[in-house]
Amino acid sequence: MKNFLRNFILFCTLAFFISSCQHDSPETSTKTAGDSTAKVKDPLPSWNDPLKKDIMDYVEKVSKEGSPDFVPVKDRIATFDNDGTLWAEMPLVQELFAYYRVRKMVTANPALAKKQPFLAVVTKDKAYFEKGGEKALVQLVAATHTGMTEDQFEADAKDFFASAVYPGRNVPLSKIVYQPQLELLAYLRANGFMTYIVTGGTIELVRAISDTLYGVPKNQVVGTTFKYAFVDSNRSILREPAIDLLCDKAGKPVGIQVHIGQRPIFSAGNERSSGDIEMCKFCQGNHYPSFQMIVNHNDSLREYYYQEKDSASLKAAVQNKWHIMNMKEDWKTVFPQ
Amino acid sequence: MKNFLRNFILFCTLAFFISSCQHDSPETSTKTAGDSTAKVKDPLPSWNDPLKKDIMDYVEKVSKEGSPDFVPVKDRIATFDNDGTLWAEMPLVQELFAYYRVRKMVTANPALAKKQPFLAVVTKDKAYFEKGGEKALVQLVAATHTGMTEDQFEADAKDFFASAVYPGRNVPLSKIVYQPQLELLAYLRANGFMTYIVTGGTIELVRAISDTLYGVPKNQVVGTTFKYAFVDSNRSILREPAIDLLCDKAGKPVGIQVHIGQRPIFSAGNERSSGDIEMCKFCQGNHYPSFQMIVNHNDSLREYYYQEKDSASLKAAVQNKWHIMNMKEDWKTVFPQ
User: Are B193 and B80 in contact (CB under 8 A)?
Assistant: First the structure.
């Protein structure tokens, strides 16, 4: 459990004190006037061939009754990672939320600003977290994400999303989702797929926006989960400062089994921290024909350029014949206009 | 965790060595010739007023657009306990499955019959479990429900349900579900409700039959969950001999929060072991108008008569103004014909 918590903290705060360093160029668009008619017919207008064709060929063969590869609707499960797969992760939104919570808590109780770990955040004291390591970070997440009821947390998450602006881009968070993935989610659903988000982020934070941003209802979000306790006196769920499921790496198939109860036939993740390899492997273990995709962040102009040190995700993709989605080449547009 | 496991074991095995003692009378039916037309119009033909009217009044007021009590479809969540609420629990099906697993394991490896806890089951040695207490029972559940992959477990559960016969009644398990509840589930779904099973039983065992018996897909089953581990070498989930969530009492709201992410507006449980009180309280804490129901097993002729020692569930129902469903009076029919 302690190991889980450490990994989670490391995962969530990897970029905590790393300044964002990417270009802030506006997204380019190859759309031209008169595209609208074509878009009605084309479910994936922001995707380029050959990957686009691969996706559509797959979806058609598993959706078409009578096809030798037909998959019944109840088994058409698609699982998408969130950070870096459905929206930008430089920085992680989870990190922005932790900052927001610190600011709010310090405003409500200014004395907190003199106490750690709040003091370190307020004064941007990187050394405190470098020196304090795991213990200081556990303290920060525990202080900002837990210790309140679920209802209170949800109200706070709602407030955060209503006003949050993405650093470096100066846009609301609805503008850092990937337009091509919105098209893909809608296309899969139109073909009978149930689309799930399977995220390393904390489950209730993603649930706060999953329906609005992605059309994914709360009960189709699987994510990192804190321990909960039911409090009889106020009939509420208390969020406790301990992780129940770290929904990353091998935790993703576990979360899928617990929440969905079956293997997906379609999985999409991204390279950065090898967090989605096991989910894709679990998906590929399905007895039905399946499809896996790893997003490669190779687009320094329209999004961000970052690569895994050991290239584990891309190597796994090549080795297992998963599709690599090179953002620079495979997407016509990155962000919604 | 140990406490959890102990409670779970006690829960699952309460009736383990208690002989079933109820009447085996065939279910009575008040249906007469010519009922079929009326049944088409009546969504709850096996229910009697006034409870039937209360249910329908509630469903109508929350489903009718423009009603002051209208609840949007996305928030129309109904949660049903399984054992004793949707099907009979004398004995628990979970218990029958444990026996089945013992028989199967001993057949495959006869030497097991000489080892505990298999020996005690094979020789019906009640004293062994009485004397061995928790330790012996943990050993039995661990040996029969875990230590295999999820795929292997599911195949076994499927085999079990294909051939299982309910003791005392001599019918397949599809005949111990409650006909009125099948009607209620269908009626709620027809009115935009998402129907969930929230069971103290182990999640994957219930998922094996939830769709076939109740029309509830796997991903709408919340239940007691073992620890899972993803095994890279065979890309499978291994079931480990430890409980992750005991989905009973205060564990039910927790399971609901993790899986569904919001409070239900309709909850149904039963008296026997006060397992559904917290679920009903959590439901009643919804800011929308809500409905709670406790099944009272007071029908010794058509089903079984059993009451909680301290009447906690029925007392909680009275105190909180939940509906009590007295099987003898409120149901025209108990089991499907």
Answer: no
